[in-house]
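#struct-help
A.M.: can someone run this one for me? Single chain, 222 residues.
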Amino acid sequence: MWKELINQSAVEFPAGRSLLLAPGRGMLVLPVKYYFRLQLSGRENLPAADKQPVLFALNHQSYLDPILFSAAIPSKIAKNTWFIAKDKYFNSPFRRWFAKSAQVMLIHPRMRLREAVPAMAGILKQGRNLAIFPEGTRTPTGRPGEFKKTFAIIAAATGCPVVPVAIRGAFEAAAPGKKFPRRARISIIMLPPVITEGLGPAAIAAQTRTAICEAMGEEREV
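D.P.: on it. C-alpha cells below:
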C-alpha cells in the first residue's frame, strides 16, 4: 500500500539546497567542534554524494542534535540532507523561514500518516538524504526511547537504506531544563546501513534501534 501511495503522490515540497546553509554552517562548525570536542566515527558508513540517497535515523538526546550532526558530517553530505521537525517549534514567520533556510521540513503532529509518509518520502524522491529522529521527542533519561515506525515505513516502501546514527554525550551537555549547554565530549557514530530491501517496517525499526543501543552500550532490543 505505502509503495503505491508514494509512487502515485506528487512531489509538492521543493527540497532544494538552501543558499544560506553553507555560510551558516561555516560559522558554526568550528565553534561547535571545539566547544563540544565533537568526534565523528564510522566515516566508512557515510553515503557517497553521487549515490542513492539514504535515510539517517538518529537517537534524540538534546535540542542540539541537528546542529551536532550537521557539524560532524562532511559539507557535501550536509548540503544534501533535510531534517524533519514538528511545526509547533517553528510557530512564527521568522522561525518557519529559518527552518527552510536550515533545510528542515515541518510536519504537523496531527497530520495523517497517509499524508506525512508521502510528503517525507518526497525528499528522497528528489535525490536528497532524509534525517529523522524516530523517537519523535528528546529522551528524558539519555537512553534511546521507543522508535516510532514512520521512518521504517518510508524506508520499506522506497527501498532506501537506513544509516543508524548514535549520538553520545549530548544529553550530558544539554539535558532537559538546561538553559545553556555545558562543555562535554560528544560523539557522532555512523553505523553500518540497514539494507531495507525485503524487510518490513517492524524489522527495519528493530534493527536500527538495536544498532544504536549497542553503539551506546545499552541493552539489545527485545
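A.M.: thanks! Residues 22 and 79 are 7 Å apart (CA to CA).
D.P.: also worth noting: Strands lie at 39-41, 55-58, 81-86, 104-107, 129-132, 162-168, 187-190.
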